[in-house]
Design a protein that fits this description.
By secondary structure, the chain is α/β, with parallel strands linked by helices. It folds into 3 domains: about 15-350, Glycoside hydrolase, family 3, N-terminal domain (TIM Barrel); about 380-580, 3-Layer(aba) Sandwich (Rossmann fold), CATH 3.40.50; about 645-785, Immunoglobulins (Immunoglobulin-like, Sandwich). Helices cover about 25% and strands about 20% of the residues. It has a 6-stranded mixed beta sheet. Strands 13-20-19-18-14-15 form a 6-stranded mixed beta sheet, sandwiched between helices. A 4-stranded mixed beta sheet has the order 1-28-25-24.
Length: about 800
Amino acid sequence: MTYNHKIKVSIVAVAVSVVLAGTIAGCNTDSSTTTVKDDAYYKSLAESLIAKMTVDEKLNMLVGPGMTNANVANLKSDTAGVAGYINGVLNTTSGLDIPASKLADGPAGIRITSTRSDTAGTFYTTGFPVGTLLASTWNPEIVKEVGAAAGNEAKEYGIDFWLAPGMNIQRNPLNGRNFEYYSEDPLVTGEMAAAMVSGAQSEGIATTIKHFAANNSETNRMNVNNIISPRALREIYLRGFQYAVENAQPWALMSSYNKINGTYTSQRADLLTNVLRDEWGFKGLVMSDWFAGDNALSQVTAGNDLIQPGATNFVTGEVPLTVLKTAYANKTLSDDIINRDATHILTQALKTPSNQKYVFSNNPDLNAHAALAKQAAEEGMVLLKNASALPIDSTSGTVAAFGIAQLTTRKGGTGSGDVNTAYIKNIIDGLSGQFTVDSTLKTTYADWYSANKTQQWDAFHMNYTWACSEPDASALSTTEINTAAAADSIAVISISRIAGEGADRSADKGDYLLTDAESTLIDNVSTAFHAQGKKVVVVLNVGGIVDTTAWKDKVDGILLAYMPGQEAGDAITDLLSGVTNPSGKLAQTIPASYADVPSATSFNGVDTNSDGTVDTNYYNEDIYVGYRYYNTFDKPVAYPFGFGLSYTTFGYTNSAVSDNTLNSKGAKGSVTLTTTITNTGNVAGKEVAEVYISAPEVNLKKPTIELKSFAKTNKLDAGATQQLTFTIPAEQLASFDEANNQWVIEPGVYKAYISPSSDVSSTDPVTFTVNSKVVVSNTSSGALALPDGVTESSFITVSK
């Protein structure tokens, strides 16, 4: 199995089968010739159409028409529940007939309204596992399949742009949107995003990677100024985006709400033009997040082509279209900038279904997509602990199901990441489908839930979920727990959390920490069942990680299920029963304590102008994010990055460096490693092998280890082997030298650990040598610099 981390895809609208020229009035076509419809073709066509537009038509394309369809130019059909539009053009004088485009939210699936006032029937979409769970599969191929399925649903419901995937770095466990994002590591982030983009765009749907960049918290997100060193930006917060752009060419990108080093991201030409387009070769369109930024003119001149949704700006009260028209009249906005941005937008819009005149069905194959959602969920859930508790034998007795989360099971988070699905399989329903469950407990929880459930609204009061407290002692006494322990064969305790856009989590009880009621439940159930010589398993149905240190030694098994999508209950049960062998691994570290997180003291930000609102966030840990910090500074963790158990065991042998062309080919070179994985246990399963590199320090300080490649085996029967090959290109090995604006590989001996997790203490490294410094690439001088008067030493507190 060769896996060189290059998901190269065509930037052609590969799923388009209708001849585009027939959709645009005034365009001639010769049906006897075959036209290669690549980006150059669409750019040329866009330029020819823009040449026929009036200035007002072009400016309307640079500004969204609002979040309703009332003012959309040339909307051929609408889809209820979309997040916004891109204006089209209808002009009988010029002959232009360019349909408007529709944009839909939903990193865990396509977010539209499930019912329509003027149409009978329902229009559900599939609730796929959240981004964190998908990353935990460490399997880009299944993520690509999920992307294709979501893209198909978008296409069949008339959507043109999918506002996904989200791919910001999980800098801190308390980010309210961590569930939408993939990982604390930029390589995992980039790999998964590239796979999702490739899958969705194979259906002729535009993806929109977001939020570019460093949108790593939700607190005052529309105004906060994130102070980050240029090196940390390059190596941690931008690198995943770079990978996705260079390897999958998303048709669109969304700039973020926040400022970086004093300037809104949507108004930074160095970020959106110099880095994104000139250095990385991005060919798509850039749109703002909804109501982002504080200066429409600065946005479009910086390279933020499209201002969304186009209504009055929340921060300043300005009306973007009016601002741009005034600037044009005053000659502070040139035709060159207008034409440039409009070309970026139209080049991509022309590839999408509305402009391809695709006749959508409103009838995607939801059954097939639900099956895929379940498969992906099962491959990504992480078995954290198993002291001979799992799998559960369905014939050995009765399962005692505890925890209100068996009924408040979370398929995904709130906000724009929510998906309107036909159903969600609760954990108790999944358990009941495969096991005999304790009927008395089942009734106790059902009655409590019915009497005590409440609607829990999200930060925008747009979506709600059902919330419910744990049963109190009057509903579930220790006597009843003891009775269950005597009668049942095993206990399964379900614990859930909900989070979403617009608010960050807290390190308090009921969020990062368990509630008193949850802690008491674990204590009481564990005491009772262990007294009977029986096991206790905890299922964590959470979007972001929670503390495990306080209670993990009290239980015998822990399954980290994250938010597994609409098939949650059945997917969880398949892992508990052994129908599926766990193969997920952590895409983030679970620290021993929240206080150990390197950004624990800085994450909430500071109020620097004394107005009572957080306005500045200093990224004090610099490049030492996640495992880079814990490994470098020898901090113990609860569970290391990359960790995950299986019902079988695997051995690693014959690890070697098979090729090293870095000395002969320099920046075009690579290093290739191999290892052999053997299933040394008794159950068929999959293993993820991870390659961590320890680089020499010459002029640049570096983390002790960094992930540079990974691969997942096929399903290996007991005793079976598979050789894995890892090819790591020079650009992936490079570190950023901000003093010289270069990506460089420093000379010396490199250690490569091919390991089952970032705990490489038991892994013998193989080595390769770089004879002299390799300059991989030069970058824009001074890009992303710190604000005047701010030095790295003034805010970076984590350094070697």
